[in-house]
Amino acid sequence: MDSLLSNLGIGFGAVMAFEPMNLFGMSMLLPMNLVYCFLGAVIGTLIGVLPGLGPVATIAMLLPATYALPPLGGLIMLAGIYYGAQYGGSTTAILVNLPGETSSVVTCIDGYQMARRGRAGVALSTAALGSFFAGCVGTLLLAAFAVPLAEVAFKFGPAEYFSLMVLGMIGAVVLASGSLIKAIAMICLGLLGGLVGTDVNTGVSRYAFDIPELADGIGFVAVAMGVFGFAEVIANLEQKEARELFTSKVTSMFPTREDFRRMVAPVLRGTILGSILGILPGGGAALASFGAYSLEKKVSRNRAEFGHGAIEGVAAPESANNAAAQTSFIPLLTLGIPPNAVMALMVGAMTIHNIQPGPQVMTSNPTLFWGLIVSMWVGNLMLVILNLPLIGIWVKLLTVPYRFLYPAILVFCCIGVYSVSSSSFDVLLTAGFGLLGYVFHKLGCEGAPLLLGFVLGPMMEENFRRALLISRGDFTVFVTRPLSLGLLLAAAALVLMVALPSIKSKREIAFQEE
User: How far apart are CA 7 and CA 255, in angstroms?
Assistant: First the structure.
């Protein structure tokens, strides 16, 4: 406990540290990391409110911008965008019946009905309070489990890391919504994309087709921004802009005693379920919110009200998605393995700053590690204070036609891609991946498994070859080491489970609402 408190003290010191800053010709001391946290929370809420702009696309667009920021400041801002989007997405889901973010899809079902019955304010307060509680719990879990998990990670060798990544890949396939075959195809496509470039061991060019710009591989920013940024813009241009706003109904914001009584248990259940699902590879906020809503429909005493404005239908998924957003940082920071697409982007952000994600970050850069964790609690506090008073502003933004927004988004994307390597080829590559991402969208293929495959592919290859070099070509090294064998058996169990007809049918039903 003492070591945890001292570590959190390091984090608070890093977040609250005052740095010299020149603003409007005046030199002053400002807590810059606190400023970055505030910016991330506000931007996250904004992109959560605006339909069509999710955290994956926004973080992909802002990755190049973090290059000019200090490492801790850049990561704090990106993390704020991620969990801020979970807050903002509920605003449009409740007021417009249009999810601003994927994890807020199920909030539409009962949140919008509460707005129609004149309880929009109560629904928004429920979402904000549930999200704040779950975010705090998720952050505490991250702080509590960080040290022991990092100590376990130090015992991992190349064979264990390879097996862990195999488990992560299979988990991403099993927990991906939609067709398993499509998810497998996207993972494989991402793995193949990660092989493009120069072989580190032999120096031989692979799949570059004599194009000099591909000698160093395909840029991560180009893939992420194309598949999620450009493709989202193209897909959103097909959507109708007719929106029914319930702004005049937002009156009483404070839940009644009966509302509090009904929301306590769903918030607790949603927080627990979200905290668990956030850690799983391929999981994340969206899966947590769907799972929490399904659970509440089965265990709630008021199940007849679901779909007609049940407060439990808002409290549970909103708590779950925020808890999952926090705990998804656990495998990234302790093992160096991204469990979902947003964490894969965080790997890219760390790589930009020459930081190798994994347990060594805790020992080599404790200020960055604990500063990031503490910033999440501070950011959640900012969000619950900011969101309710700013509802009027967010609602006004919903009246801005998307046709005015998308040109600015595309220009910003192109500037961001070009600024990373000053290469016009990367801009063209991003446009190509944008068209490819739109094709995937039309075919019903998720982009997240592709991005995970693209990030994990080179890491898997490196650890696979390193394990074979150490064992002098003995492939049994992956099954003779107990930890590696256990991870491979867990991966095999996942494959067998999802192949069972009963499990397969339940999986399809679970994702049917999405």
Answer: 37
